[in-house]
Write a structure and sequence with these properties.
Layout: H1 2-27, E1 57-62, E2 72-74, E3 77-89, E4 107-117, E5 123-132, E6 150-151, E7 155-159, E8 165-169, E9 174-178, E10 196-198, E11 201-206, E12 212-218, E13 224-230, E14 240-244, E15 247-252, E16 258-262, E17 268-272, E18 284-286, E19 289-294, E20 300-305, E21 310-311, E22 320-322, E23 333-335, E24 338-342, E25 348-353, E26 359-365, E27 377-379, E28 382-386, E29 391-396, E30 403-408, E31 418-420, E32 423-427, E33 431-435
Parallel strand pairs: 17-21
Antiparallel strand pairs: 1-33, 2-3, 3-4, 4-5, 6-7, 7-8, 8-9, 10-11, 11-12, 12-13, 14-15, 15-16, 16-17, 18-19, 19-20, 20-22, 23-24, 24-25, 25-26, 27-28, 28-29, 29-30, 31-32, 32-33
């Protein structure tokens, strides 16, 4: 009996050590959309400030197909999603929804997971999650592989939305898959919400023109832990998870309401209306507050206490509200005490004091940049903004707009950058770049 107890103790200690190792590795990786803390900031990293098509390029890997999913990095592996059109023609192509302004493609697509070697850029493995014809079309600037994957260091979680949710081990072996149905997105513009992993929970936000919902799946089995219907039209907002005052909050942006759910039960903790149509930016969390923005056909930014409860709409509960120059597609970034964001998809930058909501500077042009889809990233007292033409402007963090460098690659970029250590990863329309001095 004592021997059995000793064995169980050793196994328990091994599990705890393994979990601790993964937690430490998470801070040294870019394991999800927007990085280790889901805020675009890479602590203790120092990526290059200058590069071009040849300078400071450690490697460049060709990518088949199309996608705007951000690469994620864990240890020596880089994971990326893409959708590859095949020559296989659909005999009975899907009929578009009467509300859609787009048409499905006529050929089958392969929905593919790629794994690259971080040191060399060599492709280590690829897996075709499925081969299918999309049931609806896509916005001309969207793709069928726009949601970023995520990992907890043990498993890789992939959402191709209506084409399925997939879980692999890090060697590419399929562990489970789920079909959550077909989305009917606004005007048939397509899907883009990334999955989020927290502990043993995988969170899937499913906002569309039919019955929207948010679902939490078990990471080991893919089984549904809970599911809550949402009174929301299509959004492309990736949730954020935060532990606060003994409770884990799951916060999701939305056109009708920003909502906080109790991750363990699915109960709504608080909610707040006032966002604009087509909510896309992900919320940011810091110092007991969450910062939510949207910027299509209007401007809205709210600072909400994580201590809040109930419906905060049209109350004085938000710490501050800002209604000018907020982003449409890119998410904001919080660095130190300053909240940076662009106006709509334009290269017009504002910066607020996070405590007061008052402008540090307001609606200033980012020189050398055009329209922006990629969300900004930050490290080493610098903020990086990348536009759709492949140009990145590096700013000095501070009370004024100060450009350190302007860098150009020879292809368009919509995917957000990723930073690990002294490396930056940029996904263009044709290549994945590892940038390092």
């Amino acid at each position: 009996m004592k021997r059995l107890g000793s064995i169980l103790s050793v196994l328990l200690l091994a599990q705890i050590a393994s979990a601790d190792d993964r937690a430490a590795a998470r801070h040294e990786s870019w394991h999800q959309w927007r990085g280790p803390q889901a805020n675009g900031v890479a602590q203790d990293s120092d990526p290059p400030t200058r590069w071009d098509a040849t300078a400071n390029i450690r490697w460049k890997a060709a990518i088949d197909g199309e996608g705007s999913a951000t690469p994620i990095i864990w240890g020596d592996q880089v994971f990326l999603l893409t959708a590859i059109e095949t020559d296989r023609v659909a005999r009975n192509p899907p009929v578009p929804d009467e509300r859609a302004k787009t048409r499905p493609p006529g050929n089958y697509l392969q929905y593919v997971v790629l794994c690259f070697d971080r040191a060399t850029g060599e492709e280590k493995w690829r897996r075709v999650s499925c081969e299918d014809v999309p049931h609806e079309g896509w916005h001309r600037t969207n793709t069928f592989a726009s949601a970023s994957p995520t990992t907890d260091g043990e498993r890789l979680y992939v959402s191709f939305g209506s084409r399925g949710i997939y879980c692999y081990d890090l060697a590419g072996k399929l562990q489970w898959q789920r079909d959550l149905g077909d989305m009917r997105t606004r005007y048939g513009w397509g899907e883009a919400t990334s999955p989020v992993v927290h502990g043993d929970s995988l969170i899937i936000n499913w906002d569309h023109e039919d019955q929207s919902f948010i679902a939490v799946l078990d990471t080991a089995s893919g089984k549904t832990k809970w599911k809550q219907d949402r009174d929301e039209p299509t959004s492309w907002a990736t949730p954020v998870v935060v532990e606060h005052d003994g409770r884990t909050q799951l916060i999701v942006n939305g056109t009708t309401r920003v909502r906080s759910y109790d991750l363990s039960t699915g109960d709504i903790i608080w909610q707040c209306g006032g966002q604009t149509v087509n909510a896309i930016p992900s919320p940011l969390v810091a110092d007991g507050f969450v910062f939510c923005m949207s910027g299509y056909r209007g401007s809205a930014a709210y600072a909400i206490s994580l201590d809040a409860t109930g419906d905060l709409t049209d109350t004085d509960q938000p710490r501050w509200v800002h209604r000018q120059g907020t982003p449409y597609v890119p998410s904001p970034i919080l660095y130190g005490s300053q909240l940076y964001f662009t106006a709509r998809n334009a290269s017009v930058l504002s910066c607020l004091d996070v405590e007061t909501g008052k402008p540090v500077f307001n609606t200033q042009r980012l020189p050398g940049l055009g329209n922006i889809y990629a969300s900004p990233v930050a490290a080493a007292e610098r903020i990086y903004f990348t536009d759709r033409d492949g140009t990145t402007v590096v700013l000095k963090h501070g009370p004024k707009l100060e450009v350190i460098a302007t860098n150009k690659l020879d292809e368009p970029i919509d995917a957000s950058p990723a930073i690990v250590g002294n490396q930056m990863f940029l996904r263009g329309v044709q290549h994945l770049y590892c940038i390092e001095e």
